[in-house]
Amino acid sequence: MRFERRQPYKVWRVGGRSFPIYLEYDEQLKESYPAYPDFEEHPEYTDEGRPFATAEQESCSCRKPNAPEQPPPGDCGGCGWFCREQTPYDPIGICMCDALRRKTKSEREKRE
After folding, report:
1. CA angle centred on 59, ends 20 and 98, rounded to 5°
2. CA torsion, ordered 74, 77, 79, 80, to nearest 10 deg
3. Which residues share a beta bridge with 33?
4. pLDDT of 27-72, one tens digit each?
5. What DSSP assignment string belongs to 50-112?
6. What is the dihedral of CA 41, 47, 50, 55, to 10 degrees?
7. Which residues contact residue 53 at a Cβ distance below 8 angstroms, ignoring those fewer than 6 apart?
8. Cα–Cα dist 21/7, whole Å
9. Shortest CA distance to 76 belongs to which of 89, 63, 90?
10. I need a labelling partner for 90 at 20 to 30 A (CA). Which of 8, 55, 59, 98 fits?
11. Within 10 Å of residue 45's Cβ, how many Cβ atoms?
């Protein structure tokens, strides 16, 4: 049996990490789409304990508008906590909300 290695469609670099994005094919729609990581199902964090998120993922209870006069966003991409590193359209970013930040190993060791 021969194993064929898929090449990523794109690689996003965020928070010192690289996330390979592969194209998936939808049989019903008869088209391909980029499959981004599911950070809700499989959380990942920066070295500082900040969670990675995709712009399209549903916003959490900590959401905040990008501007005071705007309503709360429905997705992370519209949240004021969502930090994009390269362009205003990056699909993967970092949540800067302190309430969602995970303590790093060195912070936990200092408390003990």
Report:
1. 85
2. -170
3. 24
4. 999 999 999 999 999 999 999 999 999 999 999 999 999 888 999 9
5. PBEEETTSBP-TT---SSTTSPPPSBGGG-TTEE-SS-TT-SEEEE--GGGPPPPHHHHHHH-
6. -60
7. 39, 76, 82, 92, 93, 94, 95
8. 9
9. 63
10. 98
11. 18
Contacts of 41 (CB under 8 A, 6+ apart): none
Question: Whole-number mean pLDDT of the chain?
Answer: 90
Write the CB contacts of 94 (distance below 8 Å, at least 6 apart in sequence): 14, 15, 46, 50, 51, 52, 53, 82, 83, 85
Residue spans of the domains in the chain: they are: 10-102
Distance (Å, rounded) from C-alpha 29 to C-alpha 54? 23
The amino acid at residue 26 is D
Instruction: Write down the pLDDT at residue 103.
Output: 84
Please, which residues bridge with residue 70 across strands?
A: none
